[in-house]
Amino acid sequence: MMQSRQQIALVVALLIPVAAVAARSHAAEEVTWTAADGVTLYGDVHTVEAGKSAPLVLLFHQAGGDARGEYANIIPRLLEAGYNVFAIDQRSGGSRFESVNRTVGALEGRDYGYCDAYPDLEAALAQAGELGFTGPRVAWGSSYSAALVLRLGAEHAEDLNGVLAFSPASGGPMAACKADPFIPNLTLPALALRPASEMERDSSRQQFRLFEKHGVQTYVAQNGVHGSSMLDPNRVEGDVTPTWNVVLEFLAGALGEGPASR
User: What is the pTM of this model?
Assistant: First the structure.
């Protein structure tokens, strides 16, 4: 028994430095910066061992949420795949995922709608350069921010290599900033995803027909839920592997690591 304990202690001692290195290489750095209209934004930077020349994924959350809460179980998978991550708290959000939206918390009661958050996406894209990221980039949106990243891709194609839109919103609150007018102008690789339950709506089917007409890749997750959460096994009843496979294949193509996606 003593020998077994000694062996266990030795293994633990050997593993601790490895774990510490891994934790350092994937540790999040909180950053703040300012949007064009003066709103202070908060986000987290996750840098992989390959450094800031590796591809970057900019993550934007869904309505009522925040980056840390929505992407807690998604960011590790992206890091494992070799992607740097810049996860942003937009000015329209909250505590939906039992976490804190730091940007909203600093607004001192000022309230913003979904469309008001578009400057946050533009500011994050510019900030990525200020932070020293030099590799290819994709913008990733969820629900209302999925609609906004499609606009971002159309208006800032020179600064992006692709966009992913999870359950892009198109309802009443998005009337002034819905994605549909920007879809014909997308020249970047783009992937739009919805769970099968959302495809029961005529508006979702119409939007997917528009995507397909203009060369945007689409995918329906049979086991999915709304937004980026369709990738989180803790929020989906069923296997999320097929959806992850589609996403990782798209990222590899858009970021120059595999076949082009469009």
Answer: 0.88
DSSP-derived 3-state class of residue 161: coil
At residue 90 the predicted structure's pLDDT band, cuts being 50, 70 and 90, is very high
Output the pLDDT for position 26.
57
- As a whole number of angstroms, the distance between CA 102 and CA 88 comes to 10
Q: Please enumerate in sequence order all residues whose Cβ is within 8 A of that of 179, keeping only pairs 6 or more positions apart, or say none.
A: 146, 147, 148, 150, 151, 165, 168, 170, 207
Mean pLDDT score, 38-58 = 97
CATH homologous superfamily for the domain 30-254:
Alpha/Beta hydrolase fold, catalytic domain (3.40.50.1820)
Q: What type of residue sits at position 123? A: A
Sign, CA dihedral 151-152-155-161, equals: negative
Q: HSE of 21 in the Cβ direction (CA atoms, 13 Å)? A: 5
Please state, for a pLDDT cut of 70, what percent of the chain lies above it: 87
pLDDT of residue 163: 98
Average pLDDT over residues 110-127: 97
**Residue ranges per structural domain of the chain:** 30-254
Using DSSP bridges, classify how beta strands 137-142 and 162-166 pair: parallel, antiparallel or unpaired.
parallel
- 143, 174 contact by CB (below 8 A): no
**Alpha carbon distances (Å) from 31 to 28, 71, 102, 109:** 9, 17, 11, 22
